[in-house]
Design goal:
The chain is mostly helical and about 170 residues long.
Length: about 170
């Protein structure tokens, strides 16, 4: 007989709700930083470690593009977190193997793929605007693990879809 872990579900729900709020807060803060960089460019960019020189205009453009990408990542992350919370709710209710969860996993997979593409764009921008005199060091790295997670999410969505279809067929024959 399998054990029930109601505390783990309760903690997961709380953590996901907190992450949803933090994600929205981060989006707001990045937007505020972007606006501030347009209003008080010298002050903000100096604070970010890029004081103005004759050659920093491309660097500033790159930094602002990365801020825009950060803002664009907020809705994708929001969708991931809210769909994951909905899946946790179905577990709490006792029946996670429903067609809706297969669709939620599929959506999560697409959103995580989108986030990874945004991550690649950030790396490309940072590389494109960096110079020896003014490097844009954002500690960017490529991770095969995250791309494998995307693949795993797509596969898991199909497994859920197939499993729920099989269960529905089985219940129809009984």
């Amino acid at each position: 007989m399998s054990k029930s872990y109601p505390d783990a579900l309760k903690i997961s729900r709380r953590v996901l709700r907190a992450l949803i709020k933090l994600n929205l807060l981060m989006g707001f803060l990045i937007l505020a930083l972007l606006i501030a960089s347009l209003i008080a460019e010298t002050w903000v960019m100096t604070g970010l470690g890029a004081p103005p020189t004759a050659t920093t205009s491309n660097l500033y453009l790159g930094m602002r593009l990365i801020m825009v990408i950060g803002i664009g990542a907020v809705p994708l992350t929001h969708i991931v977190l809210t769909r994951l919370l909905a899946i946790v709710e179905t577990v709490r209710l006792g029946d996670p193997f429903v067609v809706e969860n297969a669709a939620r996993l599929q959506t999560i997979a697409w959103m995580v793929l989108g986030l990874e593409l945004l991550h690649l764009a950030v790396g490309a921008i940072a590389h494109g605007v960096s110079t020896k005199a003014h490097p844009l060091d954002i500690d960017w790295n490529f991770s095969l693990t995250r791309w494998l997670a995307v693949l795993l999410l797509f596969v898991l969505a199909r497994v859920f879809e197939h499993g729920t279809r099989m269960r529905d067929e089985l219940e129809g024959t009984v």
